[in-house]
Fold this protein.
Amino acid sequence: MKGQLKDTTPDGTDGADGADGTREGRQRAKTDFRFDDARLCFAFAGTLADRGTGTPFERLARPEDLSRWAVESACTAVAPPCTGADLDRARHLREAIHRTGRALADAAPPAPEDIALVNRAAAEPPSTPELAPDATTVRWHGDGITAVLSMVARDLIALCASEHRAHVRLCGNPDCAVPFVDTSRASARRWCSMKTCGALAKKRAYRARQQTPDR
């Protein structure tokens, strides 16, 4: 990922402190992408934030944003050129992934048209990595955005073909509702990330306790 970013909760407040109690890095902006605790396909679904509200926030607002996501997701080392048509195609894939994730969380069959869209994206050749002889750097071949979207679609397919499909959950923050894979030992994870929605839930609970009058 780029730089040293610090997550904020969906209400715009900081989500985590450093080990010594101080704040580290800059405060993460609403437009910054989230990758913490997320599979590639669901990190992509999270590029539309605040889904449970009446005003979702679009992080893929411009083709340049899609190029930036491709690099920050580590799908490629070079920002691929993107057009408006590429952006529309990426958003359609994103929504198909999100709807499929919701279906998995509900143990319901996904929509056939969503699966067909994912399969079409996955059918394109993905980017392929080449490790340098000294094993210190990686060069990517096939850096176009079509290759990146293929990698995202293939990640969803790999999830559906694995035992982890039974562990897909929806974030317990109703304003978020992004799918995630619960790999916790007790299968009791509630939030897409403890650094964002989990931290927000803790803050809301704390504020509620502070406002409750003593009996």
